[in-house]
Design a protein that fits this description.
Elements: H1 4-20, H2 34-47, H3 50-55, E1 64-68, H4 74-81, E2 85-90, H5 93-106, E3 110-114, E4 127-133, H6 142-152, E5 153-164, H7 169-177, H8 194-200, E6 206-212, H9 223-229, E7 234-240
Parallel strand pairs: 1-2, 1-4, 2-3, 4-5
Antiparallel strand pairs: 5-7, 6-7
Length: about 240
């Protein structure tokens, strides 16, 4: 059972995301409308275009995919459009409302549940892929999420996690300029370096971590500046469960 402190943190995280899910104004169209979701999806692809190749959404056709922290369902719908059987969980019911609307607009089927990723309501070995992008840095119990992801994966199954990189140009620039990256004010927010991320992923037999640059990174640069700006803000891990 979670401690009182963990429960309070979890409640604060849930309240934060229920309040802040609409705080990025990307469209003048009403939330839930087709144009609203087109704007969100375009922003997602512009910012995280590396996911198309790194994840290969269409490669999971016919497989059972769970997204932990599905948010508005942007990536979940992409998996479903690629032919996967998808399930999404999130602690924020406001996020799930958007995800349901988006699945309806996109015409895809999905199972959506309000649940804590550290206490998943699924049997062992239920999924072929666990996808958890940008959730661990905001979670009350990131190790619990990783352990649960490992538990509900089938033998030989895959998991994809992303965290924010402490040793990145983005973090350096934010410190120099005394700016806070988006949602860094969230309760429990934390950054990771590669070693910390690898330690968090210890339950997995195989794990490969790469640094990825979101599109907000300034384009091609040379010399020392280029090396700084090439240190990706996103650490992406591709993991595999032992057989």
């Amino acid at each position: 059972m979670p401690s009182g402190q963990d429960s309070r943190l979890g409640a604060a995280i849930r309240a934060y995301w229920n309040e802040r899910i609409h705080d990025t104004a990307l469209s003048d169209d009403p939330p839930g409308s087709p144009a609203f979701f087109r704007a969100l999806d375009a922003y997602r692809l512009k910012k995280c275009g590396y996911l198309l190749q790194a994840v290969g959404f269409e490669q999971w056709a016919g497989h059972d995919v769970l997204e932990i922290g599905c948010g508005a369902g942007l990536d979940l719908v992409r998996f479903a459009q690629g032919g996967a059987r998808v399930t999404g969980v999130d602690i924020a019911f406001k996020s799930l409302e958007l995800a349901r609307d988006y699945c309806g607009v996109a015409g895809v089927a999905a199972t959506l549940l309000e649940a804590d990723g550290a206490r998943l309501p699924f049997a062992d070995g239920s999924f072929n892929l666990i996808y958890c992008h940008g959730v661990l840095p905001f979670a009350a119990d990131p190790a619990g999420i990783v352990a649960q992801a490992h538990r509900v994966l089938r033998p030989g199954g895959s998991a994809i996690f992303m965290v924010y990189n402490r040793r990145s140009w983005m973090h350096l620039a934010a410190r120099v300029a005394r700016l806070d990256p988006g949602h860094s004010d969230a309760p429990g927010f934390r950054l990771y370096d590669r070693d910390e991320f690898a330690e968090l992923l210890a339950p997995f037999a195989e794990r490969v971590i790469t640094a990825e640059k979101p599109a907000l990174a300034i384009g091609s640069r040379r010399g020392i500046t280029g090396r700084i700006f090439d240190i990706g803000w996103h650490l992406l891990a591709r993991c595999r469960k032992g057989t």
